[in-house]
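TASK: fixed-backbone design
INPUT:
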């Protein structure tokens, strides 16, 4: 029974990584993901229950994992990430419910919290990119009259793009001057900026962070809980 469960868990992991790999590829290249991806893999998650050696225990585990579903939906409706990201989190809860290669504690929110932590990384990339531009004596704030604290925030959130493609504008024109417009963009409805030489915040597909969140769960566990255990 244990061997069959391990083999089934390996199959679940392979399917989950395949699903996220395909979703990430289409999200990066097309900035859209077909709903059929979630329908197909959601159906597969249901079918796999037939092969579970202990069906009642598996249903309980999946039920607990799906606690994350309403949270994902709320985050989607707020606009912090898209509908595809919410569906990915929900399908993963059914497909790989709290599965990990480690013996550390895994919660229904582990993939999501791991993804959130990874999503902070672009802030540092943006900041060092802007520092490099300043070191090259490029006036990245040309035409702006903003206080230092707001400029620092802009350097964390984005950069001045010569030919923006997949990014959201964080500047606006007020009279003769430009102003930084550091507002929260709705992930589902905000339009990409195509105006040359504009400050933007990069629209990094959140699916990449979710994929990273799953891989970290599998190989390391829950980053937050591991940190709390170490202090």
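OUTPUT:
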């Amino acid at each position: 029974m244990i061997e069959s469960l391990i083999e089934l868990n390996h199959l679940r992991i392979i399917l989950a990584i395949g699903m996220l790999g395909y979703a990430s590829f289409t999200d990066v290249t097309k900035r859209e993901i077909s709903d059929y991806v979630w329908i197909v893999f959601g159906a597969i998650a249901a079918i796999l229950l037939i092969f579970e050696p202990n069906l009642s225990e598996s249903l309980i585990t999946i039920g607990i994992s799906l606690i994350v579903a309403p949270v994902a939906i709320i985050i989607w409706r707020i606009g912090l990430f898209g509908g595809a990201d919410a569906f990915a989190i929900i399908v993963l809860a059914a497909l790989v419910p709290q599965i990990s290669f480690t013996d550390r504690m895994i919660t229904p929110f582990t993939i999501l919290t791991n993804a959130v932590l990874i999503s902070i990384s672009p802030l540092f990339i943006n900041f060092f990119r802007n520092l490099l531009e300043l070191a090259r004596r490029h006036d990245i704030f040309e035409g702006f009259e903003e206080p230092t604290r707001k400029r620092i925030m802009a350097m964390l959130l984005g950069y001045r793009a010569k030919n923006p493609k997949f990014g959201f504008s964080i500047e606006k024109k007020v009279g003769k001057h430009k102003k930084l417009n550091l507002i929260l963009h709705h992930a589902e409805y905000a339009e990409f900026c195509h105006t040359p030489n504009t400050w933007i915040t990069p629209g990094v597909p959140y699916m990449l962070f979710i994929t990273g969140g799953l891989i970290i769960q599998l190989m390391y566990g829950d980053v937050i809980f591991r940190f709390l255990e170490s202090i």
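COMMENT: The CA atoms of residues 72 and 86 lie 5 Å apart.
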